[in-house]
Automatic annotation (TrEMBL):
Gene expressing this chain: LOC111592832
RNA-binding keyword on record: yes
Keywords assigned: RNA-binding
UniProt GO molecular function: RNA binding
Annotated RRM domain residues: 39-117
Organism: Drosophila hydei (Fruit fly)
Lineage: Eukaryota, Metazoa, Ecdysozoa, Arthropoda, Hexapoda
Name this protein carries in UniProt: Dead end protein 1
Amino acid sequence: MDFNSQHKYRKSQVNGTIYVTSCLSLDAKRLAELESGADELFLTRIHKRCTADHIMQVAVELGDVYMLRFKIDFSGSSRGYAYLQYIDARRKALAMEILQHRFRLDRLKIQVRESRNRKTLFLNNVNHLTPLQVHQELRLISHYVKLCVYEYQPKRYVYIIIYRNNDEAAMAHHMLRTKMGNFGVNAFIDWLDKGQQVTALDEQPSCCVQLSRDSEQLQAKANSCRCFSI
């Protein structure tokens, strides 16, 4: 079966990711869930000669796919992993049970797991910028959903940056790594679950003050509190 025979999907590429996305009109609530990474599957052990089309040919046998994010290297070969979402939330459970077997029948040794949907980054050792300046630098690089700032010593902060989904967080992580010089010689960015100093923090931290991104008094308000979000 040609998975695109009815023009239900469109294909695009951004840097090292091939996107195969549904062209169907979806309910607004479900679309928002999917865009936030809901019901995402992680496909691993993909052979370097396997293509996004190969995976889609098998995946659509279980139902309509919302998106496949297929990772490739500079030569266009698979990097060994991809992310898959079905439109119908019930298809995730079915895929966890039988999709790996379906791949085996097609001579693909792909493993199917539940995605962790990591979407939170940890920025630390920014010593020469105020929280407002960090906020402004981040806005120039990528769009985040929420920035949480914690003052652990006088005028020393850690930043928890929350993105809409793993895809946006991964792109931001890549871009921020190339721009670390903007945040200081010792600054570093990593995924939150790798940041040993903040392992006790909840992934959706609840700060005592919520500041408007466009507030003219943002800096004054930020200076009055040790824990706030933007």
